[in-house]
Specification:
Gal_mutarotase_sf_dom; TIM-barrel domain-containing protein; 8-stranded parallel beta sheet; hydrolase; 12 helices
C-alpha cells in the first residue's frame, strides 16, 4: 500500500493542485464529504460550535489522534444545496461550500460571516521526506483589516497582535509552539498538525552572502546599530545582501538561523530592525517593517556555525498556515459569543483542566541551584525566620551527581537519606519539587533498563516517550527513586525535547518530523497518568518548559524558559504570557528577574534591583508565582533590606489574595475560565482595550498594568469602557474609556478593580497550610456583583467526588444589600465559622465602611 501511495505521489507532482473542482457530495450521519477533482473534503461537525475540516488525497491521513480526545455526540445538523453552494448548519453555525471556488465560509446563527477561506489557497503538494511520502499542506484565510489575532503559544518576538506576522512553529527553549488562534471576530482556529508549521510564511527570499575574512585579518569587527556600536566576535559571521520591493508598505521579515543562537541582528539600510541578545534565542524571529518601493541593503550577524536565511512577505490581510510534512490538511473552527466560550469549547474537545493543589498558588522559591538536602532545609528555615511566605522549594539539576547526567536519583554524598530532608521540608509547611529530564545517562543503572528495552530514540540521547512501555518505565523510575521519598511536584525540564531533537529521527509512531511539536504532551501524559494510578489521592503538579495542544488536561504549568533579564526581555514575557494563555493553557509563569542575570554585581546593583522589584510585583499577578535564576542566590534577603521589604509586602498580598485566586482556579476547572486574561476576553467591543499589549485582567475583578520602564513614579493606564474602576491601593474611583496617569512608586504596581466586583481577601499567612478563616470581603460598588467563594481539601482529588464547598456572594446595587447564600457542599476539616469583615468601596467619603459578621454556612443578608 505504501509503495502504491508513493507512486501516486510521484504522479501527482505534475498535477494541478489548485484545480479542486467540485464533482459530487455524500451526506452521512457524522459528516459531509465533498468529492473534488484531487481528493475528498470532509466537513465534520464536532459539536454545535465546532467544525473540523479534513482534505485528504487517496484517504491518506494521520493515523494518530493526540489532541481531540473527547468524542461528544454528533450534533444535529442539516444540509441545504443550491446550484452554487452546499450549506451545512448546526443549531448555531453554518459552513458554506462554494461549488465554483471551493471556498469554505463560516457564519453564525444570524448569518454574519466570521471567517472565510481565501480563494485558491487550499494546497496539498506531494513531497517526500527521508523516503516517506507526505504533503505540503497549506490553507489561507481572509483577515479583515480590523482583525486582532492572538495565541500560537509562547514566543520571544514581542508580538501581541499576530495579524500579518510570520512565525516558524517549532519547540525550543523559550519558545512554545501551539497552533491555535483566537480572533476578535468571534472564532478560534486550531491547525491540526503535529509537525513543523509556518504561520504566514514569507514568499520572497533574500540572498545572503557571507563576508569574506582575509587571512590574518582581525576577526573582531564593529557593527553600528541604533543602540550603539556593537562588536562582532570571531565566533560570529556577518552576511550581506540586497533586495527590492515593488511597492511601499508593511512587510513581515523573518530571519531563520537554522538553530538556536545568542544573537538576532538584522540591519536594513544601516538601521537595525531586529536586535536581541541572550545566551539562548530561538532559531527564527520576525519583525513587521515599513519599506519603500525600490532597492534595499541588508546585513545579518549570527553564529559562524549557523546559516541564516531571510525572507519577506507583504502584509495583505490574510492568515496562512503551512505544514511542510503533513499527511492531510486538517483544521478545526470554533465559534463563540466570546473568547471564554471559544476556549471552553476547545477544552471540552481536547481535555479539561484539573485542579492544582492549593499550595501551587503560593510562592515557589527556586535557584540554579541548591547543592544539598541541608541547603534546601536551611533556606526554608530562613524564609520562616524572616516571615517571608513560601510554599514550594525547588531542586534544580545535578542532584544526581555520581549516578550520571539526568538520572532521577539523589547522590547520597550531598543528599543523604533524601526522605528525611524532604520530610523536614514538609514539617516546615513547605513542598518539594525536583527537576527531571528525559535524556538520562544510558550507562547508569537506571538508564540500562531503558537501553535493554530499546526505549531510547535510535541515535539519540532522548527516550522515546511515545512508546507506552517507555511511559511506564519512566514513571516507575521516577516513582521508585523520587516520588516514594515524598517529592510533591515535577519540574520536567527540556521537554521540547531540547534543540528540536526529533527531526530526522525514528520514533514509536514513525518519523519524528511528523511529530516534532508533540513530545512535551507525552512527557506530561506519562507523569500525570503514572502518578494518578500510583497515588490517586495526591494532585499532580508538573512544571514544564514546553507544551502542545491539549496538554492542559495533564495538570501542567509552563514557564518561559532560559530568558535574559533586561527591560526589553521583561516586556516580551508579558505579551508571551498573554498569548500563551489564549491557547487554552491557564497556568504559566516566568523566572522572576530573568534566568540569565547580570553576574555577581546583581546583589548591590540598584538598577537591577529596580527591574527585579517590578518583575516581582508583576509575578504576584501571574497564575503561578515563582523565582528562579542562573548561578544566582535568588533569596529575597540577598538583595538587601529595601528589596526584601518590597518583596515581603508583595508576597503578603499574594497570600491575602489566595481565597480569590483559588476560587478563580476553580472556575478554570469547573467552567473553563482563564485566570490571566488578555483584554479581548472581557472587553472585545472596546478596540482600545483589545490593543493593550501590557495590560490584562487577573480573574474577573483585577486590571493589572505592570511597570515596564526604569525610573518612573507615574504610569499610564487605560481603563476600559462601560465600567468605572477603583484604584486598588487608594479606593479612588475613575470612569472607564480613558487613559490616566497613576502613581507608580517603586513599591507599588498599578492595579485597578472593576466596579461590580467582589474580592475576598484573607489574613496574612506564611504558607497555604494555615487556615484563612478571617476574610475581608471587598465590595466594589456601582453595579451588581456575584462571586463564588470556593474551598476544598487542598491536595487530593476528592473535589471530583463532590467534596468541596461553594459560598455564593451577591451584591445588589439597587437595594444596597449583600447576600451570602447557604453554603453548598462540604469537605473534611472545613472551616465551620468565618469571620467576615464586609468592606464597601465606593470612591467617596464613605469608602471603607466595614461591618463584621460570623458566617456559619447559613444564608446572611447584610445591608450597607
Amino acid at each position: 500500500m505504501q509503495r502504491f501511495i508513493y507512486i501516486l505521489f510521484l504522479g501527482l507532482l505534475s498535477a494541478s493542485i489548485s484545480a479542486q473542482q467540485y464533482k459530487k457530495h455524500v451526506l452521512t450521519k457524522d459528516r459531509l464529504s465533498i468529492d473534488l477533482s484531487d481528493g475528498i473534503l470532509n466537513i465534520i461537525p464536532l459539536n454545535e460550535k465546532s467544525i473540523r475540516v479534513q482534505y485528504q488525497i487517496e484517504n491518506v491521513k494521520e493515523a494518530q489522534e493526540f489532541v481531540l480526545i473527547n468524542k461528544p455526540n454528533v450534533p444535529s445538523f442539516g444540509l441545504k444545496e443550491t446550484a452554487n453552494s452546499l450549506k451545512l448548519s448546526t443549531n448555531t453555525m453554518t459552513v458554506a461550500f462554494d461549488k465554483k471556488t471551493g471556498v469554505l465560509q463560516y457564519s453564525d446563527k444570524s448569518g454574519k460571516v466570521f471567517l472565510s477561506e481565501k480563494a485558491n489557497t487550499r494546497l496539498m503538494k506531494p513531497i517526500t521526506i527521508m523516503g516517506e511520502p507526505c504533503f505540503v499542506a497549506e490553507q489561507g484565510f481572509e483577515s479583515p483589516q480590523d482583525e486582532y489575532l492572538f495565541g500560537l503559544g509562547q514566543f520571544q518576538d514581542g508580538f501581541y497582535n499576530l495579524k500579518n506576522t510570520t512565525r516558524k512553529l517549532i519547540q525550543v527553549n523559550t519558545q512554545i509552539a501551539i497552533p491555535f488562534l483566537v480572533s476578535n471576530k468571534g472564532y478560534g482556529l486550531l491547525w491540526h498538525q503535529y509537525g513543523l508549521t509556518y504561520f504566514n510564511p514569507t514568499n520572497q527570499n533574500i540572498t545572503l552572502v557571507k563576508n569574506a575574512v582575509n587571512e590574518g585579518e582581525k576577526r573582531e569587527v564593529e557593527v553600528t546599530t541604533t543602540s550603539g556600536t556593537q562588536k562582532v566576535s570571531q565566533q560570529q559571521s556577518v552576511y550581506s545582501g540586497s533586495f527590492s520591493v515593488a511597492k511601499d508598505g508593511e512587510y513581515s521579515l523573518m530571519l531563520d538561523l537554522g538553530d538556536m543562537d545568542s544573537r538576532h541582528l538584522v540591519l536594513i539600510d544601516g538601521i537595525d530592525v531586529i536586535n536581541q541578545s541572550n545566551l539562548w534565542l530561538p532559531p527564527a524571529v520576525s519583525k513587521l517593517v515599513q519599506l519603500k518601493a525600490g532597492e534595499h541593503t541588508v546585513k545579518v550577524v549570527c553564529k559562524s556555525s549557523n546559516t541564516p536565511s531571510l525572507g519577506l512577505k507583504l502584509s495583505n490581510d490574510e492568515t496562512v498556515f503551512n505544514s511542510p510534512n503533513a499527511k492531510s490538511l486538517d483544521y478545526v473552527v470554533f465559534a463563540g459569543n466570546d473568547t471564554d466560550e471559544i476556549i471552553a469549547n476547545y477544552r471540552n474537545l481536547t481535555g479539561n483542566v484539573p485542579m492544582l493543589p492549593k499550595w501551587a498558588f503560593g510562592f515557589w522559591q527556586c535557584r540554579e541551584r541548591y547543592t544539598s538536602g541541608e541547603h534546601l532545609v536551611s533556606t526554608i528555615k530562613e524564609f520562616r525566620k524572616r516571615n517571608l511566605p513560601v510554599d514550594v522549594i525547588v531542586q534544580d539539576w545535578q542532584y544526581w551527581g555520581k549516578y550520571g547526567w539526568g538520572v532521577p536519583k539523589f547522590d547520597e554524598t550531598h543528599y543523604p537519606e533524601p526522605e528525611k530532608f524532604i520530610k523536614e521540608i514538609h514539617y516546615l509547611n513547605a513542598h518539594f519539587s525536583v527537576s527531571v529530564w528525559e535524556n538520562l545517562n544510558k550507562e547508569s543503572e537506571i538508564g540500562k533498563e531503558y537501553v535493554m528495552k530499546n526505549l531510547f530514540i535510535p541515535n539519540s540521547p532522548w527516550i522515546d516517550i511515545y512508546n507506552p512501555e517507555t511511559q511506564k518505565t519512566h514513571w516507575n523510575a521516577l516513582n521508585k527513586n523520587l516520588f516514594t521519598l515524598g517529592v510533591d511536584s515535577w519540574w520536567m525540564d527540556a521537554t521540547e525535547p531540547e534543540n528540536d531533537a526529533l527531526k530526522g529521527k525514528q520514533t514509536y509512531f514513525g518519523l519524528g518530523d511528523f511529530y516534532r511539536l508533540t513530545y512535551p504532551l507525552f512527557v506530561s501524559k506519562a507523569v500525570y497518568e503514572g502518578q494518578r494510578i500510583t497515588n490517586p489521592e495526591k494532585r499532580v503538579t508538573i512544571l514544564t518548559r514546553s507544551a502542545f495542544l491539549g496538554q492542559q488536561r495533564y495538570a501542567t504549568i509552563n514557564w518561559s524558559g532560559d530568558i535574559g533579564w533586561d527591560w526589553d526581555t521583561y516586556k516580551r514575557q508579558i505579551v508571551a504570557g498573554l498569548n500563551y494563555n489564549l491557547t487554552g493553557m491557564p497556568y504559566w509563569t516566568t523566572d522572576i528577574g530573568g534566568f540569565f542575570r547580570p553576574g555577581s554585581g546583581q546583589y548591590k546593583d540598584e538598577k537591577y534591583h529596580q527591574i527585579l522589584t517590578r518583575w516581582f510585583q508583576w509575578a504576584v499577578f501571574n497564575p503561578i508565582f515563582r523565582m528562579h535564576g542562573y548561578q544566582t542566590e535568588t533569596e529575597p534577603w540577598k538583595y538587601g533590606e529595601k528589596v526584601e521589604n518590597n518583596m515581603r509586602s508583595m508576597m503578603n498580598l499574594r497570600y491575602q489574595l489566595l481565597p480569590y485566586i483559588y476560587s478563580e482556579a476553580w472556575q478554570i476547572s469547573k467552567n473553563n475560565s482563564t485566570l490571566m486574561r488578555p483584554l479581548i476576553m472581557d472587553f472585545n467591543k472596546d478596540t482600545t482595550a483589545v490593543s493593550q499589549a501590557y495590560q490584562y485582567m487577573f480573574g474577573k475583578a483585577f486590571l493589572i498594568a505592570p511597570v515596564t520602564a526604569a525610573n518612573v513614579t507615574e504610569w499610564n493606564v487605560y481603563l476600559p469602557k462601560e465600567n468605572a474602576w477603583f484604584d486598588f491601593w487608594t479606593g479612588k474611583r475613575f470612569e472607564g474609556g480613558q487613559t490616566i496617569a497613576t502613581a507608580a512608586p517603586l513599591d507599588k504596581i498599578p492595579v485597578f478593580v472593576k466596579e461590580g466586583s467582589i474580592v475576598p481577601m484573607g489574613n496574612v499567612i506564611q504558607s497555604t497550610q494555615a487556615k484563612q478563616d478571617e476574610l475581608e470581603i471587598r465590595i466594589y460598588t456601582g453595579k451588581d456583583a456575584t462571586f463564588t467563594l470556593y474551598n476544598d481539601e487542598g491536595d487530593n482529588y476528592n473535589y471530583e467526588k463532590g467534596k468541596y464547598s461553594e459560598i455564593v456572594i451577591i451584591w445588589n446595587e439597587k437595594n444596597q444589600t449583600l447576600t451570602l447564600a447557604n453554603q453548598i457542599g462540604n469537605y473534611k476539616d472545613q472551616t465551620t465559622t468565618y469571620t467576615m469583615n464586609i468592606k464597601w468601596i465606593s470612591g467617596n467619603e464613605n469608602n471603607g465602611v466595614v461591618k463584621t459578621i460570623k458566617y456559619t454556612g447559613k444564608k446572611v443578608v447584610v445591608k450597607k
